[in-house]
Design brief:
Blueprint (H helix, E strand, L loop, with lengths): L4 E4 L4 H13 L4 E4 L8 H6 L7 E4 L2 E4 L1 H12 L10 H30 L8 H17 L13 H15 L8 H9 L6 H20 L1
Parallel strand pairs: 1-2
Antiparallel strand pairs: 1-3, 3-4
Helix pairs in contact: 1-3, 1-6, 1-8, 4-5, 4-6, 6-8
Enzyme class: transferase
Subunit structure: Homodimer.
Organism: Culicoides sonorensis
Amino acid sequence: MNRPVLHFWEASPAARVCQLVIRYLNLDVEIRTRSYEDHKSVEFKKLNPSQKIPVLQDGDFVLGESLAICQYLIEKNGSEMELLGKNVKDRAIVMHRLCFTLGTVFIKLYNLTQPLYDGKTKEYDKELLQDCLKMLLELDTYLSEYKWAAADYITLADLYILTMVASLKHSGFDLTPYQNISKWYKNCEMLPGFDENETGAKRLGNDLTGFMTK
């Protein structure tokens, strides 16, 4: 039987969270690194009509969108279902954190950084930068409520938020003023795949620095 394949670009937080789930569950999945330009190709459009990375191929089954991929991997594996929450209330908090991460943190990070990738600017927009700082204050409050992001145990919310916080850190944001984020981030060093996530976040930061200095 062929191994599942994750089409992956290390600078992408969305791709890195899938990698973190794979490492956390110790899954036998091929992580196939693609370039930033690959997703624009005709070949990739046939694989994923939205032309976004990550994409998971599991035999004839092809799935895009990081949250769908993560949930599929967790449920198919079945041994760590608590990543989605142990009970209905915990699952609701996990979902809240995921909604906040995808609907607020990711969008603000994307809006701030994508214009540099597109060559439209060589510096961060000041208003968008302030939006990110306000968002970090909100995240810092959420991370004061439990030992981990959504409960007193590790959930998918931690893996998602980790990719975003690492991306912000290595894109020039000082996390020192945010005590809860800093403490939580330190705790995350124990997670499988933490160092790989750091490498990808540094790649993002290096890309952005390069765009600013061209």
